Every structure is written in C-alpha cells, then in structure tokens.
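Collaborator request, handled under Task 6.
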Amino acid sequence: MTWSVYLSGEIHSDWRDQIIEGANRLELPVTFTSAVTDHEASDAAGDCLGPESTGYWRDHKSSRVNGIRTRTLLDKCDLAIIRFGDRYKQWNAAFDAGYCAATGKPYITLHDEDIIHPLKEVDASAMAWAQTPAQVVELLKYVVSD
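Structure tokens returned to the collaborator:
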C-alpha cells in the first residue's frame, strides 16, 4: 500500500522538505500532498473570478477556491501532518485539524513545546504530537512498515 500524507500548516520554513526528504531516503511507500504554499498565489486564488470591493470578500472568495483543493486532498489522504509554527498564527492549520477530528481522519501535530497550551484541544484529538520533522519521519516509518 502507498500511503497518502497531507502536509498542512505554516509555509515559512522547510519542514515539508525535511519530511519528504526523510521519507524518500528511507524509501517509505508514501506520497505527499499539500495546500498551495505560495502565500501570494493562495491569497489570489479567487481573483480570476473578478475584483471585490473589500478585502473581506476577496479573502472569502479565495478561501472557498482554496477549500476545493484542501477538502479534496484531506478527504483522500490516509494521514495528515499539521504543523504549527511560531512566526504566524496558522488558523488554516487549526481548521484542518478540526476537519480531520470531525471526519475521523488521523492526524499528527508538529509544533514546539512552547505552544502546547494554546493547542491543547488540537493535540487532544491528534494521534501523536511531534516536535521535529525527524520525529514525523520516524512515526511514518513505523506506521507504514509491514
């Protein structure tokens, strides 16, 4: 079986690359998907549908267009890895975690120890909490091995 793993969360570090490289190095039977990680492109996802009078409606439209990809890939994945960084608030990641929890999709959170408290409900529904991409790779190795 080839596992589909969805990588959700912050886009300002190379954590995705570290996990993908680690899984490839171990030749794990895993494919990875993700939301659009180009911040400007994501913000402009709905712009092709015409201009909006306020930032709210531009964001609303782009969020719904981005949701087509996110919901489809989350529904199809076997496992989600949800990363919370320390630089920005990742409300989209929290939403993805809630979606996974509501639909019974297993997920692993990835974040530093200093934000345990604000993520306590998110972590409580997760199957595991990792602090480094290397730990995620080790979890994947265990989970996908025969």
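The cover message to the collaborator said: "The radius of gyration is 16 Å. The helical segments are 15-25, 39-43, 55-76, 91-103, 120-125, 133-144. Please let us know whether this matches your experimental observations."
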